[in-house]
Amino acid sequence: MNILASDLWGHYGIDWVGAVLMLGSIYLLGQRQRIGFIVGAGATVAFIVFNTMVDSMPMVVANVILLILNLHGWYNWSKAKQAKSDRSSAT
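The structure assignment produced for this chain is given below.
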């Protein structure tokens, strides 16, 4: 039982937090909810911490890139929403 608990919670649950947040992000984005990008950013931060703990620099770099993409998606979504409201108010 200790081996199982160690495998499940050996990294303070940070890996589980990242996994749950990433699944939530995918679901929210699939529902066309902008907050999915922020949830995804939270997941990538958790995975950056986790991969730093396990000394996996390629995954740290990949998650930094994913963090930037999530923030970019959030920003672009707001630009698109603003442009759409500008077009509708101009008519």
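Interim note for the steering committee: The chain has four helices and no strands. The chain has a mean pLDDT of 88.
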